[in-house]
């Protein structure tokens, strides 16, 4: 189940929002994807697999991680971001956390996104 969206890694490309089959995310007021309907998450890993900057962590559970779990602590998960992509071989040769992804949805979003001053 989706547990963490890393604000430090996220580039607000909306890919996770677009690929989620159960509409778990909303765009937050800060522009970051917000886990709005965690109970609807099917633990399909689509958001994590498609995230070009490894900003998402999906815990391998069918329900929310218990309070205090390391699966909800971004600092404790530092090495786990992008791990699913690596295991399944998606993005082979890609540097984890790289912003140089060639996904057309991601690159178009970055090209047209307003720049922060």
Structure description:
- With 117 residues, the chain is an alpha+beta fold.
- The chain has helices at 15-19, 46-50, 83-88, 104-112, and strands at residues 2-5, 25-27, 33-35, 56-58.
- The protein has one domain: Alpha-Beta Plaits.
- The strands form 2 sheets. Strands 1-4 form a two-stranded antiparallel ribbon.
- The radius of gyration is 14 Å and the shape is globular.
- InterPro entries: 4Fe4S_Fe-S-bd, 4Fe4S_Fe_S_CS, Fe-S_Ferredoxin.
- Residues 92-117 are annotated as: Disordered.
- Pfam families: Fer4_10.
Q: Summed up, what is this model?
A:
The chain is α+β, with helices and mostly antiparallel strands. The chain is 21% helix and 11% strand. The protein has helices spanning 15-19, 46-50, 83-88, 104-112; strands at residues 2-5, 25-27, 33-35, 56-58.
List the helices and strands and how they pair.
Elements: E1 2-5, H1 15-19, E2 25-27, E3 33-35, H2 46-50, E4 56-58, H3 83-88, H4 104-112
Antiparallel strand pairs: 1-4, 2-3
Classify the oligomer.
Answer: single chain
**Weakly predicted, low-confidence segments:** none
Radius of gyration: 14 Å
- Name the beta content range: 5-15%
Spatial strand arrangement across the major sheet: 1-4
Q: Helix tally?
A: 4
> What is the CATH level 1 assignment?
Alpha Beta
Which percent range fits the helix content?
Answer: 10-25%
Number of self-contained structural domains: 1
Structural class: alpha+beta
Order of helices and strands: EHEEHEHH
| CATH architecture level-2 label | 2-Layer Sandwich
**End-to-end separation:** 35 Å
Mean pLDDT across residues: 83
The name of the CATH topology is Alpha-Beta Plaits
Number of strands: 4
- How does the major sheet shape up? 2 strands, antiparallel
Domain 4Fe-4S ferredoxin-type: 1-30, 31-61
Region (Disordered): 92-117
Keywords: 4Fe-4S, Iron, Iron-sulfur, Metal-binding
Biased composition (Basic and acidic residues): 99-111
């Amino acid at each position: 189940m989706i547990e963490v969206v890393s604000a430090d890694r996220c580039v607000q490309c909306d890919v996770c929002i677009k690929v989620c089959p159960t509409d778990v995310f909303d765009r937050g007021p800060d522009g970051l994807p917000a886990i709005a309907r965690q109970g609807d998450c099917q633990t399909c890993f689509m958001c994590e697999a498609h995230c070009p900057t490894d900003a998402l962590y999906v815990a391998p559970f069918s329900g929310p991680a218990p309070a205090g779990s390391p699966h909800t602590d971004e600092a404790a998960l530092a090495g786990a971001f992008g791990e699913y992509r690596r295991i399944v071989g998606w993005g082979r040769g890609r540097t984890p956390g790289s912003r140089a992804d060639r996904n057309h949805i991601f690159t178009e979003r970055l090209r047209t996104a307003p720049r922060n001053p």
